[in-house]
Write a structure and sequence with these properties.
The protein has one helix and six strands, in the order βαβββββ. It has one domain: 3-Layer(bba) Sandwich (FAD/NAD(P)-binding domain). It has 100 residues and is of the alpha/beta class. The strands form two sheets. A three-stranded parallel sheet has the order 1-2-3, with no helix packed on it. The radius of gyration is 15 Å and the shape is globular. β5 and β6 form a beta hairpin. 12% of the residues lie in helices and 27% in strands. It binds flavin-adenine dinucleotide (FAD). The site of flavin-adenine dinucleotide (FAD) has 17 residues, from α1 and β2. Flavin-adenine dinucleotide binds next to α1 and β2.
């Protein structure tokens, strides 16, 4: 079975972890779970250039959606992680779906 890395939260750090995994030639699966309905994005421009209408949503993204278009990448936006069982290496969301 392929190795799977589960990333909880789809913020700037999560997006950057995915970039690093690619750069380091990680070839296992990646499951990204975030409670917001957005691709990983930078927040500082939200209260500045984006608010002023000077930036499109795409310019906020760490990577464009096509970056995640890979059979080994699973995205779960709008999903809240409720618990993490370190011993069992399992992450469980609020709907009781398990990821490992
Ligand atoms: C409007 C605004 C302007 C800012 N401006 C600046 C600035 O000018 N300079 C600066 O240095 N910093 C600024 N910051 C702060 C900067 O954006 C943060 O430091 C940065 O976003 C942190 O990134 P992160 O990925 O660590 O965390 P976050 O961006 O907080 O990402 C964490 C993600 O995890 C998700 N999450 C949390 N718990 C769960 C769970 N249980 N299940 C699923 N998902 C979960 C959250 O919804 C979130 O999307 C600003 C922040 C905001 C909001």
């Amino acid at each position: 079975m392929k190795k799977n890395i589960v990333i909880v939260g789809a913020g700037h750090a999560a997006g950057q972890v995915m970039v690093m995994l690619r750069q380091k030639k990680y070839d296992g699966k990646i499951t990204l779970i975030g409670e917001e309905e957005h691709y990983p994005h930078q927040r500082p421009p939200l209260s500045k250039k984006f608010l002023a209408g000077e930036l499109s949503v795409e310019r906020l993204y760490i990577k464009l959606p096509s970056f995640y278009d890979n059979p080994d990448v699973e995205l779960h936006f709008g999903t809240t992680v409720a618990s993490i069982d370190l011993a069992d290496k399992t992450v469980v969301d609020a709907d009781n779906n398990a990821y490992r």
